[in-house]
Specification:
The protein is α/β, with parallel strands linked by helices and 886 residues long. Among the domains are: 196-346, Valyl/Leucyl/Isoleucyl-tRNA synthetase, editing domain (Isoleucyl-tRNA Synthetase, domain 2); 577-727, Isoleucyl-tRNA Synthetase, Domain 1; 822-886, Helix Hairpins, CATH 1.10.287. The strands form ten sheets. Strands 7, 8, 9, 10, 11, 12 and 13 form a seven-stranded mixed beta sheet that branches. Strands 6-5-14-16 form a four-stranded antiparallel beta sheet. α20 (642-665) runs antiparallel to α21.
Length: 886
C-alpha cells in the first residue's frame, strides 16, 4: 500500500467522487429477494425551499441506520421523497406572484397550478442535491413525490373507500381558520402562545328594566355575532335573570339568557356572551339551546355586512373602534390585563379565527383504539419511551379530523355536485364515474357530465402522508403485490417529536384501518434543534444556518459527526457551529492516522536483524479491545444510543488505536516492520473503518479504496459489518491498568516540569507482569520496574501516585540532583478534593427527593462511589502520616 498521499484531506474533491462511485455501483438500490429486508421511509421534506439543519439531523440518523443494516446483510430499502405541502407551497407561490403584480384569482386555477409546478421543479432539484451531498444512501429509483400519479390515485381511492364506509362525512362546523392563507387548518397546525390581552367589562341592558348585567370578554368586536349570554345555574348572583333577555349594545339586538354549567363562576363576572359562529364551546351551546349562528367575518378576517358600519374593516382594527364606541355610549365599565393562550397558524403565523363552515371530516374515535393499544402493548416501540404518555393524552382527547382545505394546490377532493342542496353531491374518482353515481342516486335523471362541478377544495397535505407506508409500495391500489408483502411493515421511522400527532399517530391509525397491521416496528424521535434564542429551527422562521454552506466549509462527514454526537432520543439541543469544527478535527485525525500507517515501512528480507517485533501483548490487547468495543457499539445502536456509540468509537480510535496501539507498534527510524505486523495493522484499521462508516461514510470509503491489499475490490458500503467474537475482559482490564500507570507517570512529568524523555524507575507494591515492561519503557521511559515489600525509607526523593488503592513510586534519573519534591502538598490537595467530592455524594444520599425519584441503579452507583472515595481518602491519609513520622 506504500505510496504518496496528500498531506491534507480535502472533502470537496473526495465527497463528490465517492458519492458518484456509489451511484455508479448501484449500491443504494433494493429489490425483493431471499434476504431479510430492512425498510425505512424518509419523512418527505416540504417542497417550499432549502432544507435546514433539522433535516440534516433526521437524514443523518436514517443514513446511519441504513448503512449499519446494509453492512449487517439486510436488503435495505430506504425510500426518499418530497411532500407537496399544500398551504406552505401555495402561500410561497402567491407571495412570489404578488411581487410580480400577479394575483392567484386573476390567473385562474389551471394557470396558477402551472406556476406551482415550476416552483416545485426548481426546489426539487435544490432539495435532492442537499440530501445527496449529506451522503444519504437512499434508493433514488424509488423516489416519491406526494403528487405523483401513483400516490394521487392511492389518496383518492382511500377517500372514496372511507366515505363509502361512513368514516368521511361533510358537515357544518366551527373550524380553525387561517385568515392569511384563507383556508381551514387542523387543531395540530395551531401554535399556542401566551399573550397579554385586555379583558373588557361590558354592560348589557336587561330588557324592560333600567338595569344592566356585566359580561367580561377579550373579543368585543364579536358582539355583532352574539345570540345569547350565559350564566352558571348554581350562581345565585344571576337569579334575577331567570327567563330574561338582554340588549346587545351598539346593535340593540335582544338575546336570551341561558344557564349552563360551562360558565366559570370565577372568571370575569361569571357571565359570558355566546357567539356560536366564532367559538367552538359557543357552537356547542347553540346546538344544545337552539341558538342562531351568525357569522360576522369575511374569509380574510375583515367584517362582513353583519358588522354594520365596520364592514370590510380588519377584525383587530374593529376591536379598537368598538371599544371607543362602547365607551362613548357608556357601556364600557372597565378594562383589565389578562394573560391568555392565543392560537396562531403554524404556516402563516397569523392569529387563528374561528368561523362556521361546511367542511369534510374524518371520524377518528373508532379507528384510534387499535392505535392506542399498539403503543400500550409495545407492539410498536417508541424511543424515548416518555413519548408514549404524550401520545396517550392526545389519543384520549382525539376529535374528528378536518381534512379539507380551501386551496388549489393539492389532491382535489373527489366529490361532484349536481345541485345546490348540501347533500346534492356524489363521491367518485372522476366525472365519468360521478355521473354513474348520480344516476344511481336519482333515477331517470337527465344530468350530463357538464352538469357536474367538482369540489374546488383540496385535501389536507397530511391525508396523503398518513398512508405513505402503504402507498409508496402501491399497497393501496394493489394490497397483495410482492413489494408490500416483502417490505411491509417498515422497520424504523425517524422523525421529530413535533409531528407525533400530525403524522406518526395518523400513520398508525391508517395502517390498522386499511391493512389491520402496524405500519412500522419502532419510532425514533429526534430532538428539535434550536437557535440561540431557544426557537425551533424551521423553514418558516428562516433561522437555520445554511446547510450547503456548512457542508462546503466543513464537509458532510464533519456535519454528521457533530450532529450525531449531540443526538439523544427526544432531547432538544442548541445548534453551534463548533460541533462541525469538532467533526472536521476528528476527520482530519482519521486521515492523519491513515498517512502514518501508509508511511510504515515493511522489512527488507535481507536485513532481518533490523526488523522491529512489537510485543505480542499489544496485538492481543487490540484484538480483545476491538471486540469489546464492537459489542458495546452494537448494543448502543440497537438501543438508538447513537451519541454514546459514536463517543465510544471516537475515544477508541483516538486513544486506544492511535495514541497507544500505533505508538507502541511503530518502529523507530532505524528499524522496519515485518509484513505480518504491517498486515495486522491494516486488518484492524479496516475493521475500524467499518465501524466508522455509518457515521462518516465519505472518508472511511475513500481510505478503504486507497488500501489496495485486499483480494477483492469490494466497496466499503457493501462490505460486511465485523462479526461479533468472544473477547477476554481480563486482557482488556490488565492492559488498561498499564495504560493508566503510563498516563499517571506522564502527568507527574508534566506537572513537575520534568523532561519528558527523562528515564525513571517504577517502584510497585505489587509484582508487575514482565510482558508489559517494554510498553512501559516505550511510552513512559520507565527503564526498570522494582517490586517493593515496604514503602521506601527515603520517600522524599520519590514521586508518589495512587491507582485505585495501589501505591506507586517513581524515581527519575535526575531526581536526587533536583530540589526535593513537594509531593506532600499534592497529597494534601488530593485529600481535600476527595473530601469535597465525598460531601457531595453524602448530600445526595441524604436527599429524600433524590432517593425517591432516582432509579435504583443510580442510588447503588452513588453508594459505591461513597465507599471507594472513603477508601482512597483513608489510604492517602495513612501514607501522609507515615511520611510525616519520617
Amino acid at each position: 500500500m506504500n505510496f504518496d498521499i496528500p498531506k491534507k484531506y480535502d472533502h470537496k474533491f473526495v465527497e463528490k467522487e465517492i458519492y458518484d462511485k456509489w451511484i455508479k455501483g448501484d449500491y443504494f438500490s433494493s429489490y425483493p429477494d431471499n434476504r431479510q429486508p430492512y425498510t425505512i421511509i424518509m419523512p418527505p421534506p416540504n417542497v417550499t425551499g432549502k432544507l435546514h439543519i433539522g433535516h440534516a439531523l433526521n437524514n443523518t440518523i436514517q443514513d446511519l441506520l441504513v448503512r449499519y443494516s446494509r453492512m449487517k446483510g439486510y436488503n435495505v430499502c430506504w425510500v426518499p421523497g418530497l411532500d407537496h405541502a399544500s398551504i406552505a407551497t401555495e402561500a410561497k407561490v402567491v407571495e412570489k406572484l404578488i411581487e410580480k403584480k400577479k394575483y392567484k384569482i386573476d390567473l385562474g386555477r389551471k394557470k396558477f397550478i402551472s406556476y406551482v409546478l415550476k416552483w416545485v421543479e426548481f426546489h426539487k432539484k435544490i432539495i435532492l442535491d442537499q440530501i445527496k451531498i449529506l451522503g444519504c444512501s437512499c434508493d433514488w429509483n424509488r423516489f416519491q413525490f406526494t403528487m405523483d400519479d401513483k400516490l394521487y390515485q392511492s389518496v383518492i381511492k382511500v377517500f372514496i373507500d372511507l366515505y363509502k364506509n361512513g368514516y368521511i362525512y361533510r358537515g357544518y362546523r366551527v373550524v380553525n381558520w387561517d385568515t392569511k392563507s384563507m383556508t381551514t387548518i387542523s387543531d395540530e397546525e395551531i401554535i399556542y402562545k401566551n399573550k397579554i390581552r385586555c379583558l373588557y367589562y361590558i354592560k348589557y341592558k336587561i330588557e324592560c328594566k333600567n338595569k344592566y348585567v356585566v359580561i367580561a370578554t377579550t373579543r368585543p368586536e364579536t358582539i355583532f355575532g352574539d345570540t345569547a349570554i350565559c350564566v352558571n345555574p348554581n350562581d345565585n348572583r344571576f337569579i334575577h335573570l331567570n327567563e330574561k333577555k338582554v340588549i346587545i349594545p351598539i346593535i340593540n339586538k335582544s338575546v336570551p339568557v341561558i344557564k349552563d354549567s360551562c360558565a366559570d363562576m370565577n372568571f370575569g363576572t361569571g357571565c359570558f356572551k355566546v357567539t356560536p359562529a366564532h367559538d367552538i364551546r359557543d357552537k356547542y351551546l347553540s346546538e344544545k339551546y337552539q341558538l342562531d349562528v351568525v357569522n360576522i367575518f369575511n374569509k380574510d378576517g375583515t367584517m362582513n355586512e353583519k358588522g354594520l358600519h365596520y364592514q370590510n374593516m380588519d377584525r383587530f382594527y374593529v376591536r379598537k373602534k368598538v371599544i371607543e364606541e362602547l365607551k362613548n355610549i357608556g357601556c364600557l365599565l372597565k378594562i383589565e390585563k389578562l394573560k391568555q393562550k392565543i392560537g396562531f397558524s403554524e404556516r402563516s403565523l397569523s392569529e387563528v379565527e374561528y368561523i362556521p363552515s361546511i367542511q369534510w371530516f374524518l371520524r377518528m374515535k373508532e379507528m384510534s383504539k387499535k392505535s392506542f393499544d399498539s403503543i400500550k402493548n409495545e407492539e410498536i416501540l417508541f424511543y424515548p419511551k416518555e413519548h408514549k404518555k404524550i401520545y396517550f393524552q392526545w389519543m384520549k382527547k382525539i376529535r374528528d379530523w378536518n381534512i379539507s382545505r380551501q386551496l388549489w394546490w393539492g389532491h382535489r377532493i373527489p366529490a361532484f355536485f349536481y345541485g345546490k342542496g348540501i347533500n346534492d353531491f356524489v363521491v367518485a374518482k372522476n366525472f365519468k364515474e360521478a355521473l354513474k353515481e348520480v344516476k344511481k342516486k336519482i333515477k331517470y335523471s337527465r344530468f350530463t357530465i357538464h352538469d357536474l362541478k367538482q369540489d374546488p377544495d383540496v385535501l389536507d397535505t397530511w391525508f396523503s402522508s398518513w398512508i405513505l407506508p402503504l402507498s409508496v409500495f402501491d399497497g393501496i391500489r394493489y394490497p397483495y403485490n410482492n413489494e408490500i408483502k416483502y417490505y411491509y411493515p417498515l422497520d424504523d421511522m425517524v422523525t421529530g417529536s413535533d409531528i407525533l400527532f400530525f403524522w406518526i399517530s395518523r400513520m398508525i391509525m391508517s395502517s390498522f384501518l386499511l391493512k389491520n397491521e402496524k405500519p412500522f416496528k419502532k419510532v425514533f424521535f429526534t430532538g428539535i434543534i434550536r437557535d440561540i434564542n431557544n426557537k425551533k429551527i424551521s423553514k418558516s422562521l428562516n433561522n437555520s444556518p445554511d446547510y450547503t454552506y456548512l457542508i462546503n466549509k466543513y464537509g458532510a462527514d464533519s456535519i454528521r459527526f457533530g450532529i450525531v454526537l449531540k443526538t439523544i432520543a427526544g432531547k432538544d439541543f442548541f445548534f453551534d457551529e463548533k460541533i462541525c469544527l469538532q467533526g472536521r478535527n476528528f476527520v482530519n485525525k482519521v486521515w492523519n492516522a491513515f498517512r502514518l500507517i501508509n508511511s510504515l515501512k515493511k522489512v527488507n528480507k535481507f536485513k532481518k536483524n533490523e526488523e522491529y517485533i512489537p510485543p505480542y501483548c499489544v496485538k492481543n490487547w487490540i484484538i480483545n479491545r476491538f471486540y469489546y468495543i464492537l459489542d458495546i457499539i452494537n448494543q448502543h445502536i440497537l438501543k438508538y444510543k447513537f451519541n454514546e456509540s459514536l463517543m465510544i468509537l471516537y475515544k477508541f480510535f483516538l486513544y486506544d488505536f492511535c495514541s497507544i496501539f500505533l505508538e507502541i507498534i511503530k518502529p523507530d527510524k532505524k528499524k522496519y516492520l515485518s509484513e505480518e505486523t504491517y498486515l495486522f495493522i491494516i486488518k484492524y484499521f479496516e475493521k475500524i473503518l467499518k465501524l466508522l462508516h455509518p457515521y462518516i461514510p465519505f472518508i472511511s470509503e475513500k481510505i478503504w479504496n486507497l488500501i489496495k491489499i485486499r483480494k477483492n475490490n469490494e466497496a466499503l458500503i457493501i462490505s460486511s459489518w465485523p462479526v461479533k467474537k468472544k473477547f477476554d475482559i481480563k486482557v482488556v482490564n490488565s492492559f488498561e491498568r498499564i495504560i493508566k500507570i503510563i498516563s499517571l507517570t506522564r502527568n507527574i512529568k508534566n506537572k513537575n516540569r520534568i523532561n519528558k524523555n527523562a528515564t525513571c524507575i517504577l517502584f510497585s507494591m505489587k509484582k508487575e507482569n514482565k510482558k508489559y515492561y517494554s510498553i512501559l519503557n516505550k511510552l513512559a521511559n520507565i527503564s526498570k520496574v522494582v517490586l517493593l515489600s515496604n514503602e521506601p525509607k527515603n520517600s522524599s526523593s520519590f514521586y508518589f501516585f495512587l491507582l485505585n488503592s495501589e501505591k506507586f513510586f517513581l524515581l527519575f534519573n535526575d531526581s536526587i540532583k533536583s530540589k526535593k519534591l513537594h509531593y506532600k502538598d499534592n497529597i494534601i490537595k488530593k485529600i481535600k478534593h476527595l473530601k469535597t467530592f465525598l460531601s457531595i455524594i453524602k448530600n445526595n444520599l441524604l436527599n429524600k427527593n433524590f432517593l425517591l425519584s432516582a432509579p435504583k441503579k443510580i442510588i447503588l452507583k452513588e453508594q459505591k462511589k461513597k465507599i471507594d472515595t472513603i477508601k482512597k481518602i483513608n489510604s492517602l491519609e495513612e501514607y501522609l502520616k507515615s511520611i510525616q513520622k519520617k
